[in-house]
Design a protein that fits this description.
Order of helices and strands: EEEHEEHEHHHEHEEE
Helix content: 25-40%
Structural class: alpha/beta
Shape: globular
Radius of gyration: 18 Å
Distance between the termini: 33 Å
Largest sheet: 6 strands, mixed
Strand content: 25-35%
């Protein structure tokens, strides 16, 4: 479902607060962010700064107190939970910090289960899973189970799985945290190349600034506020 919109993800003046005793804690403070198609935006900042909250709002997993989230050309303001879930399922791919693969499934089956959840044809899903595993360089291990894959291979399965529904937006949370420098660089290079080739808008949360030379933009979140960083200054 890759969007024809040139700006698949737009957050405008988003504020998010959480209960904190008798008051409320501000996680995001009037944040605005645009992720153009075919680009990777890295989000950096200290722990507890609001990076995870930003991803959760972008994924429509949390509804902000105020502001607008436009996802794949759809303004999510006022949408009910079912409509939001349907939009998320078709418009958003998520790459988690840990691959969370199912031990009893092969690499290909990890992808196919996504189509099963969505009620899609399993025959088409089997074909697509093999294509995507080839894309991420794992065509030769499609029939191996999770415990037969290296850490880098499991993360590549995680990435391939996130692309099963052809998302317009890819949200990535610390994909290199469990990898060494070389494998981490390979994962970032894979994500940025897939983003460009497939016209996806990717938002990548990371603590690792060593690999930011390949992204298109860097924003920093500190105390819930967002500011753009010049790439040369990262």
């Amino acid at each position: 479902m890759t969007s024809t919109d040139t700006r698949p993800l737009v957050l405008t003046d988003v504020t998010l607060t959480y209960p904190d005793g008798a008051s409320r804690l501000t996680a995001l403070d009037h944040v605005s962010l645009t992720a153009p198609a075919g680009t990777t935006t890295a989000v950096i900042g200290p722990s507890g700064s609001g990076k995870s909250s930003l991803l959760a709002v972008a994924a429509t997993l949390i509804t902000p107190d105020s502001g607008r989230v436009v996802l794949a050309g759809t303004d999510t303001h006022g949408m009910d939970r079912d409509a939001m879930t349907a939009l998320r399922r078709h418009a958003v791919g998520m790459v988690f910090q840990q691959p969370n693969l199912i031990a009893s499934l092969t690499a290909a089956e990890q992808l196919e289960v996504m189509a099963h959840v969505d009620g899609r044809s399993m025959k088409a899903a089997r074909k697509r899973s093999r294509v995507l595993l080839d894309v991420v360089g794992l065509g030769d291990v499609a029939d191996r189970h999770a415990d037969q894959l290296s850490g880098g291979q499991r993360q590549r399965v995680n990435i391939a799985r996130s692309l099963m529904n052809d998302p317009a937006v890819l949200l990535v949370d610390e994909p290199t945290s469990a990898l060494d420098t070389e494998r981490g660089a390979a994962v970032i290079d894979l994500l940025t190349s897939l983003t460009q080739e497939r016209g996806i808008a990717t938002v990548l949360v990371t603590h690792d600034t060593a690999h930011l030379g390949s992204v298109d933009a860097v924003v920093e979140v500190v105390d819930g506020r967002l500011s753009e960083r010049a790439l040369a200054g990262v």
